[in-house]
């Protein structure tokens, strides 16, 4: 188990290094081949040659790409100093780059925005698990009933509707229409009720999309599991039906759900761009969207890294939990 | 990722967008406010009530929080580094200049008036020496007085382009055309005030000595890049995160792309400032990543106005025009939208071929593509924006674009083609930014109408964020064969120099970041610009501006589309609202007030 | 066994009026029908038998003959957990130790399950939950019916594993099913079934999934345990060889009905139904060559939706044309006594059958 963990962590680190190099390649090499000077995208309307040179010097754009990648990694552990034009900027470890567009280190931006995205993803996950799984189980147990059909139609619409649409509908009804919520994000350390009020709609909207998916998967898996021999055995033992479903069938149903949950959480933590945009939540997704709009490469690079890290960690956690749930899976 | 999950659903997305538009028109505006053009019970001043005139000036009360929303953060809040018009406008909250734009609506707002200085410049020595005296009682946010050295240091920062990139460099170009000074960060003198062109004989006096006269110099000093910066408070590249205030408000908090909050600078004294009324107690900006979200918040009354002042998004605009027309103004933005013909790409080296395209284009269709007469603007007939002195608007229409030829004149266009030696037409490429849907639409409109005169056009949508490297490089333009480039331009300050010098002067042709896309090398135009900067009287300057515009149009380098207009929103609660030519038709932020400060 | 003469003909008899039987287990005119889109599947269509404690009944037939459906019917597993599907239609009577199960409160039947009647399934790998240890599953089975703490229950589980011949039971108890070999798994399954000392044990194809040597061990185990616990046992199999030594009585099923029933030695040595002859012919015997010994029954089992009229076996029966007036294809034969406690349902004359058996079939076996 420990050896497995170490191997997986090592693989994750290698993966991250590869991702950094690929992202670096995309951002710095491709424009080079296309004959575009990226230093120009950091300066304004009047591209003063001194400004372009200053940016080039500070970012180390004149260095070969491997040197830039190396500087980047070194910065993560040892911090980094950007110097140019008589100005030097300290970027303390862990330095994930420095945004010359908004003049701030990338790491604080990530740590500032990560909790919002995390809260969004986790809160929504709790909701969609409760809603999706119970709806899926009920649907499976009442297969073919009006409930089942109704739930599956809602689930289908939930899966099909884009989040900015459901988000807009939710805002129109609950914020602008009924005025139930303020619909504004409030930081948690400012006011819990304000934060909760601001998060509840994004949670519901996001959970609606995922709950629908989870309901469908739960239903299908549950139906399959209910046909298993060991469920019949459980009944033959004289177990109450509640125990048969709640314990024996649920345990098996959890496996595919867990895999999905890991992937989905990883992806969402990477950036629930659409949801954050629809509700104007200051999370990672919004940060990366703004960064793309402003050509803020260091922020894009930082968020991409965090995203990849989140996905890798989520996968690792899934693998471990998988082994915990299913003894047939050995972590070797 | 969630993005992947929802991708490949184009049809649904279109359906959803339609539904969203429907929702915006219904759900967002529950309260029955059938305000027409002439104001309403809810307090909206009426359609165009603040366009070039002051709306509800006497309803402004002290106090409250003025709430801006924005889809785009400033390029920088550092007075030296900002270049967005809205940033210059907003920066007046926390910065003062020797002179600034008048706090008056319309054309008067573009005139220069004393701010830190007791009066406008005493100009001597044939326009080469400008002398100012600072007012008494002008202070920084820590209560210390603002000195002439602070002003000089602030201006010197413009030279530090390698650290403080992004802002306009007019002051540097005029005061130090040879680039001798290396900027305050590389300044070897003890007080870092080594720039020879500016003298500060005492703390109250500042003297500018121009190597070559420039009649727009005072306009340049009215830019926020001429704001004072105190040396001990200069955080260099990070200054934009918390500029040290010389104005009525100071930074309380700023998180780029999230929010910004200004609070009163208690050291600022109303008596020392003839410009700023400083009505609200606090000023906030909330940033949005989705323009529709912003429009929703404006429509619902949560926010007072859009910081960006670039018009509402199509969906919000539609709703607002239908149901809240009294909250809208339709100012001219100061921008001209146009197509330009690089002379390096054949056959656009031949004036007749350029004329053929100008005459053959369907100008009504181009205007429609820009958004129509209200949201897009009036058909552009020449290259000088109406807000610039010397402009004649649609009265000057050498190619009859707004009259006889507005639908395109195929016969005349074909005649021009014949004169060009291309009677059967030719083929070329339009370069258009891929991140501007409206520009892509105009390119398509142009493509359709040129087909009728036998000109085949291919549209190349290039990465809009790389404008400087792609179309700003004449050799690249030639290599790619971009015969037509779609662009837009607005004045940095309202003069022919502030608008047209980078576009039309042969001296401004450069290998990267070029803006003279047409590669105009006209001695007559260059000569007129030279003449302009030494002409000190306004009437003379205006006359030259008109002449330059005529020369440009006679050269047929440009096909103007529109004199741009916007639809901008003002909340019911805003008072003392007016648009000003000083900031290209934006509301003058610095004097906005609230009717009900408690709201 | 007594009074079986009418059982095959009990169709339409008012069951509620029937008196409680004296036998430990008595099944009367059991019918299990499943409505499907294609029609009504008559998996069991009028089955009756009796079983005393300490005795073993072998139910033999091809797959689809209704033998597993019968066992699940006795356990009450057709009604438990039938979510959303069209419900199985069950009629007849199942008397277990004086209680009629079909009309009893389902929760009462649930409490009997695992306690008074238990079941061993065909494939122990799929019949055991993959995510729980053997111990956990046995402990659970025990604690449903006994109010004891986990420790006591686990001791009991170890004891049972030991009893069914699993080495190092105190260690293996914490293993997962996939860590057991096939035979060990089936032993564990048996241990789990017997943990509550059931009075009725139903073994549904208990050895089918196992290899031959292990098969014998498991059968021996079942026999030993039966002796020890004195339970009634029903062994369901398609393989006559499995029940040859185990069963006291045999019941041969075809198309959801009983075609021959009697003491095991009678059915083996004096079978009186052509289908039983076929089964005997296809039974592997160690003293024959591979080629010779398998004489399979030609054709395929009948559709349970459209059971052939007359004798259900008639399309596959080589002697179907012997009785006159085409009676095999029009009249369903009832069980008739062909010897002491020995019944068969066939239109062939008694002497005719004896002759065919002794002259044509027996010599070939």
From TrEMBL, chain A:
Domain ABC transmembrane type-1: 114-322
PROSITE patterns referenced in this protein's UniProt entry, alphabetically: ABC_TM1
UniProt xrefs under PANTHER family: INNER MEMBRANE ABC TRANSPORTER (PTHR30465), OLIGOPEPTIDE TRANSPORT SYSTEM PERMEASE PROTEIN APPB (PTHR30465:SF0)
Cell compartment(s), UniProt: Cell membrane
Origin superkingdom: Bacteria
Family note: Belongs to the binding-protein-dependent transport system permease family.
Protein name according to UniProt: ABC transporter permease
Its membrane topology: Multi-pass membrane protein
Record keywords, A-Z: Cell membrane, Membrane, Transmembrane, Transmembrane helix, Transport
Principal subcellular localisation of the protein: membrane
Residue stretches spanning the membrane: 9-30, 116-141, 153-175, 195-215, 257-279, 299-325
Gene3D superfamilies: MetI-like (1.10.3720.10)
From TrEMBL, chain C:
Protein's recorded name: Dipeptide/oligopeptide/nickel ABC transporter ATP-binding protein
Alphabetical UniProt keywords: ATP-binding, Cell membrane, Membrane, Nucleotide-binding, Transport
Database matches in SUPFAM superfamilies: P-loop containing nucleoside triphosphate hydrolases
Record-linked InterPro entries: AAA+_ATPase, ABC_Ni/Peptide_Import, ABC_transporter-like_ATP-bd, ABC_transporter-like_CS, Oligopep_ABC_C, P-loop_NTPase
Membrane-topology descriptor: Peripheral membrane protein
Record-level Gene Ontology MF annotations: ATP binding; ATP hydrolysis activity
Top-level taxonomic group: Bacteria
Record-stated family: Belongs to the ABC transporter superfamily.
Span of domain ABC transporter: 27-280
Protein localization: Cell membrane
GO CC term, one of those recorded: plasma membrane
Species assigned in the record: Streptomyces phaeoluteigriseus
Coiled-coil segments: none
Gene3D superfamilies, sorted: P-loop containing nucleotide triphosphate hydrolases
